[in-house]
Amino acid sequence: MDKMKVLAEWSYTPTKIDKGYTRKTLYVNVGEPRMEIRDVTQDMIDKFTGGRGFDLKLLWDAVKDTTKWNDPENEIVLSGGPLCGITQYPGTGKCYAAFISPLSGQTYDSNSGGYWGPLTKFSGFDAIEIQGKSEKEIIIFINGDDGKIQILESNQPDINAYTITENLHEYFATSEADKRSISVVSAGKGAETSYFGCMNMSFYDPRRKVTRLKQAGRGGGGSIMRDKKIAAMVVKYSKMTGNENNVVDLDTLQKVGVKLHKEIHDLDDSQCKMRKIGTAHLNEIMDEYHLLPVNNYKFGQNSAEIAKIHSSEYEKLFTQGLPDGCWYGCSMACAKAVDGFTIQTGPCKGEKVTVDGPEYETVASLGSNVGVFDPLWTIEANFYADHYGVDTISLGTTLAFVCECFELGLINKTDTNDLELRFGNKKDIMELIHRMAVGTDEFAAIVAKGIRYIKKAFAEKYNSDAKTMEAIGMEGQGVETSEYVPKESIAQWGGYYLTLKGPQHDEAWLIFMDMVNKQLPTYEDKAEALHYFPNFRTWFSLVGLCKLPWNDVEPANNRIVNPPKEAAKVPEHVQNYVDIFNAVTGKAIKKEDLVTMSEKVYNFQRVFQVRMKQGNAFHNIPLRALGPVFADEWDARKDYYDGKLKEIGVEPAGLSTEAKIQKLQEYRLGMWEGLKTAVYKRRGWNKKGIPTVETLKRLGIDYPEVVAVVEKYSKPEDVIA
Amino acid sequence: MITVNGDPLDWHPGMTVQDVLDAKSYTFRMIGVWVNDKPVPKGEFGTFVIPDSAVVQAIHMVSGG
Lengths: 721, 65
Ligand code: SF4
Description:
- Chain A is α+β, with helices and mostly antiparallel strands.
- Chain A has 3 domains: 5-236, 4-Layer Sandwich (Aldehyde Ferredoxin Oxidoreductase,  A, domain 1), CATH 3.60.9.10; 272-480, Aldehyde Ferredoxin Oxidoreductase Protein, subunit A, domain 2; 490-620 and 684-718, Aldehyde Ferredoxin Oxidoreductase Protein, subunit A, domain 3.
- Chain A is 42% helix and 13% strand.
- Chain A has a 7-stranded mixed beta sheet. A 6-stranded mixed beta sheet of chain A has the order 3-2-7-4-5-6.
- In chain A, helix 20 (523-543) packs across helix 29.
- The termini of chain A are far apart.
- Chain B has a single domain, classed as Beta-grasp domain (Ubiquitin-like (UB roll), Roll), CATH 3.10.20.30.
- Chain B has 1 helix and 5 strands; from the N terminus they run E-E-H-E-E-E.
- Chain B has one helix spanning 17-23; strands at 2-4, 7-9, 31-35, 38-40, 55-60.
- Chain B has a 5-stranded mixed beta sheet, covered by helices on one side.
- The radius of gyration of chain B is 11 Å and the shape is globular.
- At the A-B interface, helix 9, helix 19 and helix 22 of A face strand 3 and strand 5 of B.
- Iron/sulfur cluster binds at residues 90-91, 93, 113, 325-327, 330, 332-335, 546, 548-549 of chain A.
């Protein structure tokens, strides 16, 4: 491969990590170009911890109140966190990215496995900020071995993820073994047209001899990369030892790690089978509990077809017996892959490839939700989504919405340029994915921008009915809903739509607790869960951890020694986190501190949203998320929904289905308001969902510029009594 | 009659925890069961006999995502 031209180059002395931190961040402006290494203050560590906390603090300082996603000052900020890169405990290689999202116009944070987070930290940086816009196609190269940062003119004719990642591992490695010292962040062609472009973060798989991709999929980070003309970012660090983080107490770290490794080894096969199927173990379970989205979340189940996408089908397709960890030391090893897969359509037709995933979310988004129950089609759609650099969840949820618009006659074949976009029409849905990736026509380019944009564009261009689209378009805050049917869990309405950034399941998944276990009977109980779980899970994002080893395996005695509500929190694992945090950093936190550490960042991010939305950071919920919208949805569970009406004192006999739907919707909209008030109150927010000054003070984040945002947009009448 | 997660369920003599899970179509693997506030080990689901009027909690643990 030809040598790439160096457009800018800087040398630096990599700072060694001490107790999990380098206390340095890297700033690169790709427009000017300019590089700076900045100090991390003690206050930044105390208030923001690291990872997503550092991302948001740096982003806050970098943008203006009016910054749009494609303004040069928007940044992609990437950070692992103090625990990122340890190898003794499973799930410690996560990198968190934050940016102003093209979908929502406010901050979004998204995480990925792969080696990028650890290797950039080992190269000397707790966080990396990328700002500015390049005129040329570039590749950013961080060489932690030699202490060099380069901006290179890209020589890559194909920027799609699998191709460019493979090429760049080859280009920057000096040997086969050296490929493991490299990680590439890429997007793809689709991220140029789309508002939901993803960032693929790589690692080299020495057994398969291929590069593997994990995704910071959600929110549109890949779209920003392409807007900045960044074809890829590459890091290289080859001097890794077993204690790069220079931890305080390696013994404890090892002991706690060994305990969890043993637990996974002994129990995973009888619990979640993560090592064999990854999160695809959920497919039939979600179907059984009416939670699997089918045909744009109309239904939660498809008994006739579920066998075709049963986890046992995926188990056969995933290569078994390989340790599929996405970072060293992760014995949960859920990063499953399909090897030797022959592509049937599009530019890679006929090629034999290794496809990463699919995980449960993709099985549903690029499967049941578009009416497809064919693992081979889903695997191909998954391949192309990653390759083109688009988020599988937003893509699938958007396609599901578009298919329903087509079925309802809101758009027709003239609008779609001859595509018959019916649920289950695999050929035409796949063709649309290819068209979206290159922005072939106006229709494909509209679809690539996500549901909120589509609703407006379809109404304007095709005269589609706005009210219907509002009811069935499954987005919140501009972001597409992830792949669980939330209709029957009030707490999950909050878990999805009272979140910081939109309906992603990484804040709180409360459906079982609420809908099945009935552990959250009152608004206050639900609000408490919507305080605890989002904050607890935020903590993973501050320190660089993967959530899965927390509760996708549990100690054998978890449900014997803990009462039901406590068991859901997996107390022994929570204690593990306290122990490993203290072992790395030398601090002495207690388990209660995890939530307080998170609350600081959670509330800071909420104020950030208020700032970027000029006070209008509203939480919206589509009617479809609250219950049935059309008669066929009601009739699919007629007895159940008639029973729901009776529970609220409405006699269904004699009412038309439309009238029943109307009654339930009205009631549930009232419940949504009740939930919202209870949650805002528990979180220390006002009626508009703005944290109060008292909340900021309690958490020690009452910085003048943060208080100023709150004071600017809060009114005395918004106080919740 | 017993209650399962707060909902009534017909009881019959000899009814086991597994019978309850089957009756409720609770197929999730990560499930914990408490009968009158006492935990039932997973290995005993098929043999543990539930008394009449029992309060059964069949708690689905959260996973995935
Ligand atoms: S549990 Fe899975 S996603 Fe998480 S770090 Fe391990 S392999 Fe990666």
